[in-house]
Amino acid sequence: MRAGEFADAASAVCLLTGCALAFVAGVGLLRFPDTLSRMHTVAKPQVLGLLLVTLGLGLRLRSGIDIGMLVMVAFFQLTTVPVATHLVGHAVYRLPQLPTGDLAIDELGDGADPKR
Amino acid sequence: MTVGRIRSRTRRVLPLPVGWLTVVWVALWGTLTIANVLTGLVVAVLLQVLLPLPPAPGRLVFRPFGLVRFVVRFALDLVVSSLRVAWQALWPGRLPRSSVVGVALATRSDVLLTLTVLALNVIPGSIVVEIRRGRPTMLFIHALGADTPASVEAARRAVVRLEARVVAAFGTREERAVSTGTSGGGR
User: Fold this and answer.
1) Interface test with A, best of B23, B24, B140 (most A CBs within 10 A)
2) Is B86 close to A28, i.e. CB distance below 8 A?
3) Does the pLDDT value for residue B77 go beyond 80?
4) Mean pLDDT, residues B160-173
5) Is A47 contained in some domain?
6) What is the arithmetic mean of pLDDT over A72-94?
7) Is residue A7 one of the residues assigned to a domain?
8) Residue A116 lies in a domain
9) Which of A9, A25, B92, B138 is buried most deeply by CB count within 10 Å?
10) Which candidate from A41, A64, A107 shows the least CB-CB separation from B140?
11) CA distances from B154 to B9, B117, B150, B158 (A)
12) In this predicted structure, what is the pLDDT of residue A14?
């Protein structure tokens, strides 16, 4: 009984923290000035938020059939989001208008043409 | 590039992917029964025969100590970078400007390069914008909020350290020797 209550409490904390991070990721998406900066919110608070929500669900549901699925969700999130982030960043940097915002230091632009 | 065995026949059924696909199959069904494992094995073998992937370039070695260190640091970095981006998103003032930073990598292995790039998108303040193959391979990262030469240097060092951890966790003996030889001397 005690262990169950503890797991429920931990689950609540994980779910709420995860939701808060997903919310902040949304705020960042609106507030950041350019596409590359926005990709940071997709790559980080959003991923951790989703991991915490799956962890919270696992702690609450506590059955093999759900945990297997949740582990797969977490695994594929961790392996696919960096690829998506990289591809968007890569594509944005090559756009002719360079909507990369106001870069302080741009070592890629200083060198050769980004289209190689 | 010739380090490790490059498989010429793509239609071979390899034990590691079959095992992994079976694990995914059983996890998705949710229950560990003999029937699930057997159907998982059949599906995994069929997938390998019908939809063969091109041969993997190079080889992965799993080194337990380096792996644990890599995973723990990865989890810590994920939390730290999430909180940092969250803080930057909520901070009421204007964001400091960002930079695109070039980093020379020591490794020449495609697999280690892929793992480094995957993990890089999670460490504090960086996403990979461009990969330029060559000697050395150059990575260009977008460092959020890095607007001074000192913070750009810090972002560069973070990438070099991450690469060293990836090589320590997954690199072959030769790759680890190369890594400690160059990045250790450069620091």
Assistant:
1) B140
2) yes
3) yes
4) 84
5) yes
6) 83
7) yes
8) no
9) A25
10) A107
11) 44, 17, 6, 6
12) 93
Identify the residue whose tokens are 């890629």.
A108
Average pLDDT over residues B165-169: 85
pLDDT (0 to 100) of residue A16: 94
Cα separation of A8 and B18, whole Å?
A: 36
For residue A9, give its domain range: 2-110
Q: Does A73 touch chain B (CB under 8 A)?
A: no
**Which residues of A, range 44-63, sit inside 8 Å of B by Cβ?**
44-45, 47-49, 51, 63
For B49-86, b where at least 16 C-beta lie within 10 A, e where not — what string?
eeeeeeebebeeeebeebeeebeebbeebbeebbbbbb
pLDDT digits (tens, 9 = 90+) for B86-121: 888 888 777 777 888 888 888 777 788 888 888 887
For chain B, what is the radius of gyration of the CA atoms? Answer: 20
Closest residue in A to B96 (Cα–Cα):
A104
- Which residues on A lie below 8 Å from B36 (Cβ)? none
Determine the residue among A44, A52, A106 to mutate to test chain B binding: the one whose Cβ has the most chain B Cβ atoms within 10 Å: A44
Question: Letter for the amino acid at B73?
Answer: R
Q: B122, exposed or middle or buried, with CB in 10 Å at 0-12, 13-18, 19+?
A: buried
Would you call A98 an interface residue with chain B, using a CB distance cutoff of 8 Å?
no
Q: Average pLDDT, whole number, for chain B?
A: 78
3-state DSSP call for residue B130? strand
* Residue A72: burial class (beta carbons within 10 Å; 0-12, 13-18, 19+): middle
Q: Is residue A58 part of a domain?
A: yes
Span A67-75, average pLDDT: 86
Return the domain boundaries, chain B.
1-56, 64-186
